[in-house]
TrEMBL record:
Superkingdom of the source species: Eukaryota
Protein name: Fe2OG dioxygenase domain-containing protein
Domain Fe2OG dioxygenase intervals: 182-286
Entries under PROSITE patterns matching the protein: FE2OG_OXY
Keywords, in A-Z order: Iron, Metal-binding, Oxidoreductase
Family: Belongs to the iron/ascorbate-dependent oxidoreductase family.
SUPFAM superfamilies: Clavaminate synthase-like
Organism: Hibiscus sabdariffa (roselle)
InterPro entries: DIOX_N, IPNS-like_FE2OG_OXY, IPNS-like_sf, Iron_ascorbate_oxido_reductase, Oxoglu/Fe-dep_dioxygenase_dom
Length: 331
């Protein structure tokens, strides 16, 4: 349920970060304040900035720096970690190899997924079996990303606990066989800048979409506004960078679990600046093989009719992956 929001709220999650390992956190007045703010943001906007998250700003910067460095390498270097079906769709894809609703996006990427061991999810997970591809250059690339992914996973787990409380459940309501073994996706994205030689007037960095899972943590360059969020009346509200914060948004699976009370808000990216922009996008997802449907408890809380939607998360993801690439580019 999106509204006519004009701006995106900022939430200081530090009490949740401090107490989020304790399942009794819901009794803490500071945590309850955060939970209230999460509830409001998830109902009204589906997007919020997260501060007080505990991920070192130096690491947030470092992962953007190595991403910039990688995308500045010559094309043949980048192709050393090329994404193909045989790499489990993990690796580098060049500009316009990715498509959104049939239109190629003006972005290049590297995609990473949580490990899928052979046979782990039967035929469902097969296309994602493969190893993540790490560039040799820059040298600190793999170590910084792995540390970053570990911290984002932990932060997301705590935010999800806050959200479970906000929905009137217990802190671990959405764990166990639902989201206790969370899948994750990381997409490092580079959006070329506009220049007289490269005007790209009508080119969209990422077309209108919703994200697929539970929560997304966007770590974007500080000096360029390019991400835009659609409100109920169709206006595009910019997610202007606030240094040191993540932009957090809700994905399709959380919308279903919450019976539509929380919205997976539409967004897009247009880089109108002359500068190259990067974004490190971390996607926190449910268990790969879990069937996601509106939870009875939340149907009651939402006070509306049960949404007629359900999906096995892994199927939803695989369906997207299969339809996201210009196939000829992957040979
Ligand atoms: N992994 C996630 N959620 N990324 C969202 C990407 C959305 C754009 C993609 N080309 C698409 O059309 O879905
Ligand atoms: O570049 C951004 O700021 C957001 C990218 C995005 O929405 C996505 O990849 O899902
Ligand atoms: Fe997105």
């Amino acid at each position: 349920m999106s509204t006519d929001f004009k701006s995106i709220p900022v939430i200081d999650v530090s009490p949740l970060v401090a107490k989020g390992d304790d399942l009794k956190m819901g009794q803490d007045p500071d945590v309850r304040q955060v939970v209230k703010q999460l509830d409001r943001a998830c109902r009204e906007t589906g997007f919020f900035y997260v501060k007080g998250h505990g991920v070192p700003h130096s690491l947030m910067k470092e992962v953007k720096d190595v991403t910039h460095k990688f995308f500045h390498l010559p094309h043949h270097e980048k192709l050393k970690i090329k994404l193909t079906p045989s790499t489990g769709y993990r690796g580098y894809q060049k500009i316009k190899a990715n498509i959104t609703k049939g239109v190629p996006d003006l972005q290049e990427d590297i995609d990473y997924y949580r490990d899928v061991k052979r046979g782990m999810y039967g035929s469902l997970g097969e296309i994602l079996e493969g190893s993540n591809q790490w560039p040799q250059d820059p040298a600190n690339f793999k170590a910084s990303m792995e540390e970053y992914i570990r911290l984002c996973t932990d932060l997301s787990r705590k935010i999800m606990r806050g959200i479970a409380l906000a929905l009137g459940g217990s802190a671990d309501e959405l764990e166990g066989d639902k989201g206790g073994d969370p899948f994750w996706v990381v997409r490092l994205i580079g959006y070329p800048g506009k220049s007289p030689a490269n005007p790209q007037t009508n080119d969209i960095g990422c077309g209108i979409h919703t994200d697929y899972g539970l929560l997304t943590l966007i770590n974007q360059d500080d000096d360029i506004t390019a991400l835009e969020i659609k409100n109920l009346s169709g206006e595009w509200i910019p997610a202007t960078p606030i240094p040191g914060t993540f932009v957090c948004n809700i994905g399709d699976m959380l919308k279903i679990w919450s019976n539509g009370l929380y919205e997976a808000t539409l967004h897009r990216v247009i880089n109108n600046s002359p500068k190259y922009r990067v974004c490190v996008a971390y996607f926190y997802e449910p268990n790969f093989d879990t069937l996601v449907e509106p939870l009875e408890l939340f149907v009651e809380k939402s006070g509306r009719a049960r949404l007629d939607q359900k999906a096995v998360y892994g199927e939803h993801l695989v369906d997207k992956v299969k339809n996201n690439f210009v196939m000829e580019e992957l040979n």
